[in-house]
Amino acid sequence: MPSYTFVSTANAFVLRGAKVVFVDIRPDTMNIDENVIEAAITKKTRAIVPVHYAGVSCEMDIIMEIASRHNLYVIEDAAQGMMSSYNGKALGTIGHFGAFSFHETKNYTSGGEGGLLIINDEGFKERADIIREKGTNRSLFFRGMVDKYQWVDIGSSYLPSELQAAYLWGQLEFAEEINENRLSIWKRYYKGLLSLQDTRKLSLPIIPSGCCHNAHMFYIKVANLEERSSLIAYLKDNDIMAAFHYVPLHTSSAGLKYAEFIGKDRYTTIESERLLRLPMWYGLNEVKQQYVIDMIKEFYQ
Q: Label partner for 132 (CA 20 to 30 A): which of 242, 258, 268, 274?
């Protein structure tokens, strides 16, 4: 998996006793570099975990081909990928599993925490039911397939409350409208800041061919960490909250304990220090957005 991700990506495996292996990212999308995955595979490797950063897909055709040759599972971290696709396929439906998030920071939220697991391999469907039912075969009981249910495997409580489900459902009913609104905001940022990219003041996001994104976030990349800190302070002084994102996991104390970075860190650290997220939410009006654009331009003047 990439080191440039949220801790949950790694925690899911560390909690089950697995060792996490980090590899470098691509500087254009901040996604796992598909070209360095194979060199990190050993006889102990069990899975590849691509993270679709900012709702922009990893190179899934190549990743699935590598996984097939090495008999590995692919678990897509599509936490930010709802409504995004790769070569016409919805993110989360390409690998063996796809995990989504409905955290309050996502495009569609259950009002706090929450998530979704998509199972694309029929062989795991029954066990997933059991794990979801606290480790019991209660689902089989309700379907009349067993005369009583019992504890048969590990499990926990993963169910959302009815209130959370209703909160989320209200947004999913307008999923297309929300998606279009966010895309229009993303495009206004891109158009408004393009002149700064043309003059090499900063870099704008890159969307590879075949990737249809969901405008989960809009970020810019500046020259270095020092410039980013100065820009954050300048925007804050002008009542604009802009934030950097992940600190690479392989540099953390837990990352050093539970994981290993294989290969060179050519881009993970340096690119993470350049990235700055701009204000982005459904319904962000043009006046406020133009103010953000103007203040960034003013900073570079």
A: 258
